[in-house]
Amino acid sequence: MWPVVAIVALAIVLQLFVKPWVGGVEGGDFYNKLAVDILVNVMLAVSLTMVNGFTGQFSIGHAAFMAVGAYTAAGIMYYSSFRLYGSPDVHGGRLSTMLTGVEGPLVTGADLLFFGALLAGGLVAALFGYLVGLPSLRLRGDYLAIVTLGFGEIVRVLIQSQTRDVLYDADEIRAAPVVGIVQLFAAEKSLGEVGWSAWWDQMQGPLWTKLGGALGFSGLPFYTSYFWVALMCGVTLLVAIRMKYSSAGRALLSIREDEIAAEAMGVDTTKYKIRAFVISAFFAGIAGGLFAHTVGVQLNAGELGFVKSFEVIIMVVLGGLGSISGGAIAAAILTVLPEALRDFELSVLQALLGVFVLIAVVGGVRAAWGLVRGRGVSPRAKRLLIIGTGVSVAVFVASFVAPAFFGTRFNLGDYRMILYALALILMMIARPKGLLGVREIWEIWRRH
Amino acid sequence: MVDALDNTVKARSSEPAREVLLSVRGVSKSFGGLKAVQDFGLSLARGELNGLIGPNGAGKTTVFNLLTGVYVPDAGEVVLAGRSTRGLKPNRIAAAGMARTFQNIRLFGELSVLDNVKLGCHVRVTHSMWAGVFRTRWSRGEERAIAERSMELLRLFELDGRAHEEARSLPYGDQRKLEIARAMATDPKVLLLDEPAAGMNPQEKVALRQLIRRVRDEFKVTILLIEHDMGLVMDICERITVLDYGLVIAEGTPPEIQQNPRVIAAYLGTG
């Protein structure tokens, strides 16, 4: 019980003390927004780790669960706010705002509504997780990947093409039915009585279909705050970590390692694969709900397609398949990296020196590590050291010969997506098993 | 031949103390036109240590796969501790008390040696997944018991010194031992060993003989082993079944098997 209390306490401290403090710094709102993005991405990466990392099933449709959770929570929040408060503005307390200088109660009934909407999003996503988990019982590897990819695209296309424009008029929203089928039953008309097309028309009316379609769902209240993301992210991490170190977690990992042996040792592989998909989808759905209500986000299913899925997979693979902490760290780095590179002006000299000094440092650290371990300096470390130092000195000397060229300044930000991609490639060459492999950050020193 | 087999089975089942744990009757399996196993029969009592031998491709591993539910028999029946295993998935058969090792080692390579054994205990765990996540008192107690039991098994198999290493980093002989330890962690009634001595050096084989006997005596488990090392089989097995081309060609004590002309013909050819 105490970890949950600790998570709630931490989330409140972040919201009430850290957020205003950061907000006071120049550009603080940007940093706060970035922190929220990081925590949402950590949730996505950790939830995907449960499927791709623990169970070894390669799912590449994770963004679809996020989309399902996002649209469920968004629909509930937007239309409930209209019906209850007459407008889609935030009616929560101080725990549910990213604005500074807000007065009022800590928590209101609207916060409870938001919590419920997030949970509902998670549960609907979990239901989809169950459906996607079913083919995983028969399909392996690439084949499963294709099925999950297809699922992700179907969800995206359905939301984009089948849902209708969002309603903006309070009276219209009050008048509209919530779930069409309930109205049908209320009118004591069966499908056979009213006919298929009339039934379909009726289904077009209710609010649950008015989710914006291809235009996206705009005008959502910005409930997502430090408190909510820290709380949900904390719970996700807690569940993932405890799961990994429980008997059930070992069962999941054994499926990844060798499914036939796992089954022979009594692991119900069917049950555990489905469970992994359901739990993973649940947390992805909650992350989606949080994403939808983040400041500045215009929810659009088009952005939650397979590109988003791949972003999450990159985080998980980069962190190390099966490593919760690795995935979380990679998620944080990959969220910050494109932003950090945005405005970064430097000269040719600085850029070249930066790269080659770094190479020299890497070589030096490797050499020192080898000496400490008593293995001596490896030829690779020697090579890095020589190339790094040599080129650095050469560049430095050359800068006096051709100061104009080496002094040319350029903006790294223009090339940030290239650098981002380059960083990924280098990372996978240097550490093919990801940052931490299958280990957790607290396990690195435990092994001999 | 079949009559002789029936007679031995009858004679043995008339012994008063003999409690049949595993009884296999008329099990057959074909893959397309290939009759891998035909009309296989076997009866194992508690604490027996029997061997299953035969030339390469005789169908020995297929028998193991039929017993453990990897393959579903075309005909016949496997009865484990009085219950038919028909239609049960491998994990249910494991839960019913059948554990095995694999000819080509199938450890959970990236998990630690200890976790491999702990996974074996999974099938006896009574707390739910959520109890494990919430760490209820009951689940913590069970996890503690699992850890203790697993370390105990590792000590018995002399692997406790490497408990926290990755399973795949173990030497070959130790990996075979770890497979047996993992199988024993499922608390089996019947243990199926598929070529446990393969790839071991002579010293390791001597240690393995003692280990297998010790496992049988300490856990009162019934063991059926497939092995090509005749010295080991003849030394430790009480009874031996010989397969050739999917058919049982002989069944008896080691001296009987060694003198059986059909066995000699199967192994050496009929000149």
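Residues 1-15 of chain B have pLDDT under 50 and may be disordered.
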